[in-house]
Design goal:
heterodimer, A: 114 residues, alpha+beta, two-stranded antiparallel ribbon, 9 strands, 25% strand, flat, B: alpha+beta, four-stranded antiparallel beta sheet, two-stranded antiparallel sheet, 39% helix
């Protein structure tokens, strides 16, 4: 289990720097995605955007708030809603320093039938 | 991704290693917070049925430290939405340090000090959410058909907000199993900073309002299982002198 060091307990991260706050990141499989937009409708932070005017395939993407920072908290709602399974979570949400997650691993797993 | 299928469900009150989900587990695993609703009314009897799940929740010392308010009027909901956005804009004017470099220099250290004293309200996730609400990119209540306000009686036994959470989750799961879409909205705290809204909903001692549930018919089939971070769990099973065994819950 990870621990917070004394400095980490004191230091509040800068919310808009990617080396201090790691926001979620998604990957869309262009061969599976149909551009239906169901993920855009469910996204809690409305962080996903679908470009409707694109001439080719309309694949959603994550909007960046500032360089390297997205509105994604890797909740997985889009992934659950996607009927084609085109979405994978590339990177989980983890703010560093004071807000660092200590009991969760960076690995992802589906609910397991123990 | 695995989609909603009602076959192969295990019976209730029975366990066998590696068996399929039973109906209750299925609702828990596949429920997602729904934020886009159909423009279709919910019958009052269905809302009453959902409230019944709250009424029969466990609470410390059977104190039942809760009060429910149901709002179904679209005009009130629209007004709540408008006021919350306005107030969020005002709050963000004081704390949003990302707007320009002068704010970055003067406001950032101040916000970090406030975040130390209010770490839950100024966690990066609500901070980003409030920033996006102030920019009118994200709605607050997502046009629900009904809102259930969860008022906590501060005089309850032990920790009344925890009892309220249990009752709320009971209602959410019951509502979901009946086909409704639900979502917890904590941004109502912003609205409750205004005395006229506290008066409107009659929120006064001993009640406080910190959370609400939005209800409606989901626009599409959003449900399904998703993957989450593996949880690290300590197992104490080696006597008082032994060290805890660390296990990855959900991992291999």
């Amino acid at each position: 289990m990870k621990h917070l060091s004394f400095f980490e307990k004191l230091y509040i991260p800068d919310y808009f720097k990617s080396n201090q706050v790691q926001t979620g990141n998604l990957e869309f499989d262009p061969s599976l995605c149909t551009g239906c937009g169901i993920c855009v409708k469910i996204c809690p932070g409305r962080a996903l955007i679908i470009n409707k005017e694109a001439s080719e395939k309309k694949i959603p993407f994550l909007e960046e708030i500032s360089p390297g920072i997205t509105g994604c908290m890797s909740c997985g709602d889009c992934k659950a809603a996607c009927p084609k399974g085109a979405i994978t979570i590339k990177q989980g949400y983890n703010a560093k320093y004071f807000y660092k997650k200590t009991a969760q691993d960076s690995k992802f797993a589906f609910p397991k039938r123990y | 991704m695995p989609k909603r299928k009602n076959d192969n469900l295990s019976p209730l009150y029975f366990y066998e290693k590696g068996m399929d989900w039973n109906p209750v587990e299925k609702v828990i695993m596949e429920r997602r917070s729904i934020r886009s609703f159909k423009d279709k009314p919910i019958p009052d009897s269905l809302i009453r049925r959902v409230l019944e799940a709250g009424r029969f929740s466990p609470s410390a010392g059977n104190a039942q430290p809760w009060k429910f308010i149901v709002v179904t009027d679209p005009e009130i909901i629209a007004k709540m939405e408008k006021t919350t956005i306005k107030l969020t804009k005002l709050i963000m004017w004081f704390v949003d340090y990302e707007r320009n470099f002068i704010r970055k220099i003067f406001l950032k250290p101040l916000v970090k000090i406030i975040a130390r004293f209010r770490p839950n309200e100024l966690h990066p996730i609500p901070f980003n959410l409030m920033q996006r609400i102030a920019a009118e990119k994200v709605p607050v209540y997502h046009n629900p058909t009904a809102i259930i306000l969860l008022l906590v009686d501060k005089r309850g036994v032990g920790r009344p907000p925890l009892d309220m959470g249990i009752a709320g989750q009971n209602m959410v799961l019951a509502a979901h199993s009946l086909g409704l879409g639900t979502c917890w909205i904590g941004m109502i705290t912003v609205l409750m900073k205004l005395p006229q809204w506290r008066k409107f909903f009659n929120v006064k001692y001993p009640y406080s309002l910190d959370d609400c549930l939005i209800l409606g018919w989901p626009q599409a089939d959003f449900d399904g299982e998703t993957d989450r971070e593996v949880q690290v769990v300590d197992w104490y099973r080696q006597g008082s002198k032994g060290k805890p065994e660390v296990e990855q819950q959900g991992g291999d």
